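Severity: low
Component: inverse-folding endpoint
Summary: output formatting inconsistent between runs
Steps to reproduce: submit the following structure tokens with default settings.
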């Protein structure tokens, strides 16, 4: 099991960036909006290598 092909943007290298807005609308319920913060405080060291190509 895993992600559905061609729906997650993993294959196209599309990543969220600071100040991006994500919205999802549910019929008859409403819209949920989430903003990606400009600065994220990292509280724990990452187990992943730093990737300058993503900045």
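Observed output (run 2 of 3):
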């Amino acid at each position: 099991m895993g992600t559905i092909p061609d729906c997650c943007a993993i294959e196209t290298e599309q990543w969220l960036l600071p100040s991006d807005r994500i919205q999802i609308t549910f019929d008859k319920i409403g819209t949920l909006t989430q903003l990606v913060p400009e600065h994220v405080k990292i509280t724990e060291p990452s187990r992943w290598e730093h990737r300058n190509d993503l900045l």
